[in-house]
Amino acid sequence: MTRTIVASATKEVVIGFDQPFCVIGERINPTGRKKLAAEMVEGNFETVIKDALAQVAAGATMLDVNAGVTAVDPNATEPALLVQTLEIVQGLVDVPLSIDSSVSAAIEAALKVAKGRPLVNSVTGEEEKLEAILPLIKKYDVPVVAISNDETGISEDPDVRFEVARKIVQRAADFGIPAHDIVVDPLVMPIGAMGTAGKQVFALLRRLREELKVNTTCGLSNISFGIPHRHGINAGFIPMVIGAGMTSAIMNPCRPQEMEAVRAANVLNGTDPNCHTWIMTYRDHQPAAGGTAQAAPVDSSSGGRRRGGREARRARG
Amino acid sequence: MTRTIVASATKEVVIGFDQPFCVIGERINPTGRKKLAAEMVEGNFETVIKDALAQVAAGATMLDVNAGVTAVDPNATEPALLVQTLEIVQGLVDVPLSIDSSVSAAIEAALKVAKGRPLVNSVTGEEEKLEAILPLIKKYDVPVVAISNDETGISEDPDVRFEVARKIVQRAADFGIPAHDIVVDPLVMPIGAMGTAGKQVFALLRRLREELKVNTTCGLSNISFGIPHRHGINAGFIPMVIGAGMTSAIMNPCRPQEMEAVRAANVLNGTDPNCHTWIMTYRDHQPAAGGTAQAAPVDSSSGGRRRGGREARRARG
User: Fold this and answer.
1) How many pairs of residues across A and B have Cβ atoms under 8 Å apart?
2) What is the pLDDT of residue A72?
3) Would the CB atoms of B260 and A232 count as touching at under 8 Å?
4) Nearest CA distance, B136 vs chain A (angstrom)
5) Please, what is the average pLDDT of chain B?
6) pLDDT greater than 70 at residue B75
7) A contacts of B260 (beta carbons < 8 Å)
8) Are both B271 and B302 inside the same structural domain?
9) Which of A67, A138, A309, B69 is deepest in the core (most CB within 10 A)?
10) Smallest Cβ distance to A202: which of B58, B198, B243?
11) Which residues partner with B97 through β-bridges?
12) What is the predicted pLDDT for the residue at A212?
């Protein structure tokens, strides 16, 4: 059984097919958040702190930490900023962290100060990346996210993306890194641009699980890019990828609709024994018609009737 | 490609792996609805009419029609009542109907007056049922729901349920009924009572699709029997069964959370080309925190950032 172990100073988490879905909180990331980027450059970590606490409170299993403010020379500025951000976050919350950077020097600087066993995000199939990142993964004995693109970019052909993933796993093995420390991101395309994006990723996830036996992740909200009511699409996508074998995702845990989908899929996938987490979370739930766009007539009396019906029919039939 | 064709007088619907999920509205069923049963016995069809219109308005693909009021002798009373109910419903709405009864004489009486090509609900693997129902299916050239239990009851072993389904398909073939006119119900157990119920049914659905090449259905809300916030579990279950190959379900289309899950899964499964239905339904959607029990901090700014982040990183990496 594939088990990817990540840990903070005090808390260990296992990513695996028989484990609750691992929610990697995506919020501590200045990319596309100008205000946050400006704050971090100024040494103001108020939003970082707020986002760290809110994501853990909302149920994040881990937190991604990215300090990629768009500087003129990331190689010069990002290592120190990533270290500073990481130290603040690991001093604040007890969940394991993901060190997220495209700057190898920043990843190594963060690995030197990280407590526990962080996840590194990420390596790709690009030769330069493999040579820069895999030695760090081996040296620090940590797991890594492997994104299935290479020098040729992101292929629209899922078979090509699978082969890139296979190449990364093989190259990692050459460095003495086991497959269970590779978490493959098969890359999710926006369904609005490519109608087969969903079926592609479901098929890829099954192959990654069955053939490479690796854990998997993705940037979850990519799927709904550009279409209305994205949270509804995301919430439908989560059970489908979990059913296809995905074991983690980089996502926003502060969205209740998405987190409800994660919890429901854990129940249905058999990783919430006795529905314990579900019941603890929703035992006082009051039925409501909200959270959906089409306010169709609501009738709360539907529960259980079908089953009762069949059993009743069978009894008298 | 497996295609089960159902039709009303004016409208044909195809149930199939490459079709939008077929939502069979469950509401016209007096089992467990004492008030509705009392009305129907009195010849009052106000609720039937209201439920028919509401379900079609909410997006039902088909409507199930059951007149099984708990009479002393269903064989004497149900045929006439089912015919009456069916005629009212088929005069009112244009969607195909499912004739739902455990009384063979009622099914035949309804088949005589039904317009188009209704679905018959249901036959089981019980010898007496096979002998009573399959000749009607052949004679009227209609499709039938095959429930995978037999004289020994409902097996908890999914392999036994699969073999019951196979037996029904084989017996149907002996009558000259093709597999594409059999819609198998693999039987969904409550997840609260059996933690493996979800994984069982996902595996069964794959086998039914790949080995028997049949369409499938289930009484959807069975899965959430007895646990809080059932609609959240149902809404997570729908994308998972669709991902596993289920092509229809008997469910309540008047529940917006469940119907949103159906529409999202159709987008993701590639059966809502260009996201047309999704966009038409949700284009004016206003983000809201409602519809979920845990009101975690909400931040609507998460969309698309992750993708932007990766691309931005790649560009500067």
Assistant:
1) 350
2) 72
3) yes
4) 17
5) 91
6) yes
7) 232, 235-236, 292-294
8) no
9) A67
10) B243
11) B63
12) 98
The tokens of A111 are what?
């690995």
Does B111 have pLDDT greater than 60?
yes
* Opening angle at CA B265, ends B259 and B268, nearest 5: 150
Q: Hey, what are A202's tokens? A: 């479901």
Strand stretches in chain B, DSSP E: 3-7, 12-16, 22-25, 62-66, 97-100, 119-124, 144-147, 182-185, 215-216, 248-251
Largest CA distance in chain B: 78
In chain A, what residues touch B37 (CB-CB under 8 Å)?
none
ipTM of the complex: 0.90
Residue A248 inside a domain? The answer is: yes
Total tally of structural domains belonging to chain A: 2
pLDDT value at position B288?
A: 61
pLDDT number for residue B46: 98
More confident residue, B162 or A304: B162
CA dist., res. B276 & res. B257, Å (int): 19
Residue A280 lies in a domain: no
Specify if B130 maps to a domain: yes
Name the residue range of residue A262's domain: 3-275
Question: Which residues have CB under 8 Å from B15's CB, separation 6+?
Answer: B3, B4, B5, B6, B22, B183, B215, B247, B248
Task: Output the pLDDT for position B260.
Answer: 98
Whether residues A285 and B31 touch (CB distance < 8 A) is answered with no
Residue spans of chain A under pLDDT 50: 289-317
SS3 of residue A178 by DSSP: coil
State the pTM of this model. Answer: 0.91
Q: Using the 8-state DSSP alphabet, how is residue B125 labeled?
A: S
Q: Between chains, do B244 and A239 touch, taking CB under 8 Å as contact?
A: no
Q: CA-nearest residue of chain B to A297?
A: B254
Same domain, yes or no: A266 and A300: no
